[in-house]
Task: inverse folding
């Protein structure tokens, strides 16, 4: 029998996706540059389903039913191009190459265009959920042509996570849309993690709680509106004790956060699109600051606030409100970026559907995402999530607590770039007037960059160096 799908690149992700397809009753052709990995997979897991192990590219392609569905799970970057160059000449019009690696959406657009000229569908696909998700049900974000999704969609929906019976996979949009959405998903993940980290730091630094006590606070939060995978694992990590020293695990881990680059891409892309994603940017920069051991060493010992007050028992509740409000902001910024990308590249992404497919499988899975889906269902053209009834009310309820938490952090010297920037974004959007008017005045003064007026149309320039009369520009 011919295979319904083939997977090339059998490291942790490819291997687990292949097993997931097989466990769902699909015949899976296997291929890997190093053939030992292919053999090992069949030896260890061959009884889980129908696998066709192949060694050469020609054998692999020949093992697939037509139209062929060939999934690439190799290290994103030059390896992806190398694998495409190897297989594309062996394929026929109508065949599909699915790239499930973490490719940059611009690379996906380039590859899709090149392969389209050969009649091959290139399906850049975001896959979230790591190793575990790949095996038991990831969140899947496929781009590419609608036609390819007709053939591929049922397979992807089969292996995806399910929430309330709904698969966490849907066609995102043409060419690079899937990888773009996966990129922003990761950016939001950065922001979410940063906000949780700040909450922990505040409960520790301002309320004086121990990690085990903070774990309990997170466990309680996880029974409410903040219920999510990230809050759940935060409690687990904080409750963990280091076996070697008997100290809280979080105290023996070097405090320098690393990153693989998707958060940075989200911010770089947002800058290109002119979308303010301060919450995501602050999260990326917070990791960067933590990693600058040299700067931190040089600055260590600089003066801080004299005050050392400890916050009372109501503080945790205030932090919960600040966290929820800031999380709403981070998601609103991420969704704004997806909307902007969709408009720029003509993808027509269904924003509500993105929240739906993130409910399971992926790292940012959360009860809260249902609210985002509801919000976009109620008003697909909403300019910002913040004005949705539920979110507007939550932001309203959070006002005093959110401001108190940011003020407390500033008074006590606990760094909260995520909370602070989220609040500044909120206050900027809701302001009657912004000091951007002054910025425009300065720009006109030093560079004759002109300005618009509130009371009539047109562009104007004031003769700053002359008699300061105003001229039409
Ligand atoms: P890696 O990213 O570690 O890649 C290893 C695979 O790439 C192996 O199969 C290796 O073959 C193959 N490969 C390389 Br490297 N260079 C190659 C080349 N020039 N030609 C052919 N094959 C080549 O694997 P991974 O961690 O399973 O991730 C796979 C993809 O999934 C990546 O793009 C990653 O970003 C993405 N992703 C990973 C996660 C995660 O949690 N790990 C989550 C979501 C997405 P070999 O065996 O012969 O060396």
Result:
């Amino acid at each position: 029998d011919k295979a319904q799908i083939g997977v090339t690149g059998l490291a942790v992700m490819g291997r687990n996706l292949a097993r997931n397809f097989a466990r769902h009753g699909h015949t899976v052709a296997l291929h890997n540059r190093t053939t030992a990995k292919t053999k090992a997979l069949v030896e260890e897991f061959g009884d889980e389903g129908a696998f066709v192990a192949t060694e050469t590219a020609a054998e692999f392609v020949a093992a697939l039913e037509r139209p062929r569905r060939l999934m690439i799970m190799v290290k994103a970057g030059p390896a992806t191009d190398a694998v495409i160059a190897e297989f594309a000449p062996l394929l026929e019009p109508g065949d599909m190459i699915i790239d499930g690696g973490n490719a940059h959406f611009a690379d996906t657009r380039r590859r899709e265009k090149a392969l389209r000229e050969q009649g091959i569908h290139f399906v850049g696909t975001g896959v979230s959920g790591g190793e575990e998700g790949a095996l038991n049900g990831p969140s899947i974000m496929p781009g590419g042509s609608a036609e390819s999704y007709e053939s591929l969609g049922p397979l992807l929906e089969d292996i995806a996570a399910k929430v309330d019976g709904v698969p966490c996979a849907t066609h995102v949009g043409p060419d690079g849309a899937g990888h773009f959405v996966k990129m922003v998903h990761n950016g939001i993940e950065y922001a979410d993690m940063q906000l949780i980290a700040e909450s922990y730091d505040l409960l520790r630094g301002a309320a004086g709680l121990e990690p085990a006590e903070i774990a309990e606070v997170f466990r309680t939060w996880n029974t409410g509106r903040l219920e999510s995978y990230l809050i759940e694992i935060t409690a687990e990590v904080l409750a963990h004790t280091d076996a070697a020293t008997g100290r809280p695990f979080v105290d023996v881990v070097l405090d320098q956060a690393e990153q693989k680059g998707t958060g940075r891409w989200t911010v770089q892309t947002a800058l290109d699109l002119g979308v303010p994603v301060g919450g995501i940017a602050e999260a990326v920069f917070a990791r960067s600051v933590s990693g600058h051991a040299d700067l931190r060493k040089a600055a260590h010992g600089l003066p801080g606030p004299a005050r050392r007050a400890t916050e009372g028992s109501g503080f945790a509740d205030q932090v919960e409100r600040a966290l929820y409000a800031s999380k709403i902001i981070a998601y609103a910024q991420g969704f704004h970026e997806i909307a902007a990308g969709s408009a720029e590249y003509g993808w027509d992404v269904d924003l509500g559907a993105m929240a739906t497919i993130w409910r399971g499988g992926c790292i940012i899975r959360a009860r809260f995402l249902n609210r985002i889906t509801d919000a976009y269902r109620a008003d697909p053209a909403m300019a910002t999530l913040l004005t949705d009834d539920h979110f507007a009310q939550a932001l309203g309820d959070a006002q005093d607590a959110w401001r108190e938490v940011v003020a407390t952090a500033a008074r006590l010297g606990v760094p909260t770039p995520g909370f602070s920037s989220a609040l500044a974004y909120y206050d900027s959007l809701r302001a009657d007037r912004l000091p951007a008017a002054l910025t425009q005045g300065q720009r006109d003064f030093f560079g004759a960059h002109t300005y618009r007026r509130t009371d009539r149309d047109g562009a104007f320039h004031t003769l700053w160096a002359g008699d300061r009369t105003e001229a039409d520009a």
Summary: Residues 9-14, 32-34, 37, 73-76, 79, 82-83, 100-102, 127, 130-131 surround NBP (CB under 6 Å). The two ends are 73 Å apart (CA to CA).
